[in-house]
Amino acid sequence: MATQLNHESRIDSRWQRHALGTALACTLFVGALQAHGAQVHAATASVERLPLNIAAQPLRQALLLFSQQSGQNVLLDGNLDSALRSTAVEGRYSTEEALARLLQGSGYTFARTDATTIYLVPVQATQANSEILLAPTQIQYQDNAGVSPSQSYRANPVSSTTRLGLSDKETPQAITVVTRQQMDDFQLNSVKDALRNAPSVTVEQFETDRTAFTSRGFKIENFEFDGMSLPFSGGVLVGDQDMTEFEQVDVLHGANGLMSGTGDPSATVNLVRKRPTDTFQARIDSSVGSWDNRRLGFDVSGPLSQSGNVRGRFITSHDKGNSYLDQYGHEVNVAAGLLAFDLSEADTLTVGFTQQNSYSNGSTWGALPIADYQGNRIHYSSRSSSVGQPWTYWDVKTQRAFAELTHAFDNGWNSTLTLAGMKQDSDTKMLYAIPATADEAYAYINRTTSKEEQITAEAKLSGPFALFGRQHELTLGANYGRTHHDEVGHYRNSSGYQMESLIDVLSGNVVQPPLNYTDDFNTQLFTDRQKSLFAGARFSIVDDLHWIAGARMLSADGDGAGYGSPHDTRVHGKVTPYTGLVYDLTPQWSLYTSWTKIFKPQYLRSTGGGLLLPLEGKSLEVGIKGLVLDERLTLTAAAFKTDQQNVAELTGEIVGGQYLYRGTNLKSRGFELGASGEALPGLDIAGGYTFVQIEDANGDETRKYIPTHSLRGSLTYRLPEMPSVRVGTRFQWQSATEVDTNRNVRQDAYALVDLMASYDIDDNWRTSLNLNNVTDRKYLLSLYQSSGSTNYGAPRNLTASVTWKY
Length: 806
What we know:
Helices cover 11% and strands 53% of the residues. The longest helix has 43 residues, at 2-44.
């Protein structure tokens, strides 16, 4: 008990220092912004430069996005030719600069009639007539619900997600976007919560402080920050990733080896950062909830110079509380700062730094044993049961930094240079419980410390080019990544295990052993490096048919070892091709197909004594995408199949302390349906259905811990009679799952329902309530672990929050 109090006192001391530093930083930052606010407004009113993110796409859709992001009304005489395309506009531009780039090569120019209205005019007409009379058609983002586009459940993926600068409709793969509005409505404060809102992703929280993610039957290992791969090590999230600094989460379904990391057949998750804004804005979020959970967040942004060419953003949050799990408690502190400098009209430098410290008490290594020593299912009466002890903990400190330089050429081309780095320190003291008899368990106790450093650099060039009388887009790039990992295991003694009463384990009464660790050794010490060149192009074959083609050439090497498996793989010049077709049925609907190869080095020891051969395979996807209801609602349907060879599978053998793996072949088949946007005035929806089936080389079903069927969705409705009131629900249903090696460990199909309601007190204040697991459903969080250990999900719980914004 004394150790627990000491650990908690360290947390309290850290929080006091964090709170004091945050208060001082916020005071200085807000003061600087306010000092410039009035001057900046006066100086920039006539030449305001807007942050825009518009991919190359059909001109009509690009103009709709321009209207949405700029607030301008765009009018033209007649209808636009559906074959006309825009160039990409990404960065900060005045409205005139942005329109000039969008209309480049289209045969149109523009004229402004007032501060918010712009007419599009054919170039020939301006040359033939000095006065032009128009009967204009309006291209405008209509806001029927009375809310801004940022409050929508539909958003385009940022260009860094696909790297080709394509819109969702033009990308020959399914894409899910979890918007900031969804995160705010349902209190999705961690990446685990956010990805539970993505229909194609299964969140496998197999311990209190470690989580894996799967999609289409395979583990997700491609995680990015603004398109740069700074992944969770091995695809496993350690601790937690707070979402306070992110604007949205883009999930690109299926293999994306062309543009990000290695070819992973599951998905690529891109966390999109908030950026400094041109105008002053501030926001404070506070909430309290069940089990003494409380959260406080602060976000302030705006210009830092009179001209507005220097902008800043400061974001911080504090999240602390207990849990429905016995002994468990957590604290997460985040501070992030970003600065943007307009070096010229064409060049912008953005730099950022984030510090996140996560602390937890009562952490578990493994989880609650769900099967006894004979393999029979154990049912626990209390969902709070846990093997965590008062003296177990898992602390994770993470630092991330990046610098990004963008340049916009006069011919519509853009270049981006990015350098990013991450440093993570982890310190754990854990107990692993294995049932030995009906009343006793082996308790395996150890302490582990680890350090991981990553650095990534990338150069990218993209833009339009003309060939055979048509306009096409090209992207070229190169990147480099390096990961160094150093982990030391501090084991109690050579025997490792000690026998404990199962009742004592579950009651938190296991006595902390003496700290006389004598068997320290490096469980992991390795360095991995990757270099790659990539090129991709979108060719306009005919007006309605577009071919996307490209390739990535990868070289990888490493040294050291992880858990006994050497990291001495050498790969040089391995080419991964990618190709896709998109056919525009109408300006709103498109059919697509894509195909790619899969290649990924593996650092695992095989039964033959050497390294497991690289994972290889191929993936095929076909689908349809559409925009309906005045392009307010996006609909998608996709079918996919993936074949993989040399998929790592544990053999159960341990030789010289090393786990041995065999390579097996797997097939994944399935389809997905999705919808996001405004279904009716004031009614926002986002969700989808997924069917996936995984078979081994013998045609037998495998990986049954992944649900075959899943349905997820969220919706909110603004009451027309009371527009200040919004109500909503979030639901999840999935079919039965079980552990592959033990059919006794099974979770039947279940559904979860959450409710929310919010009230806008005035333009600045909002209050809301969230009630989760309304039916108080009892269920297991995950059966990802082959041992069958897991925790129960949270029972019914409530959160109340208040938000102030300016």
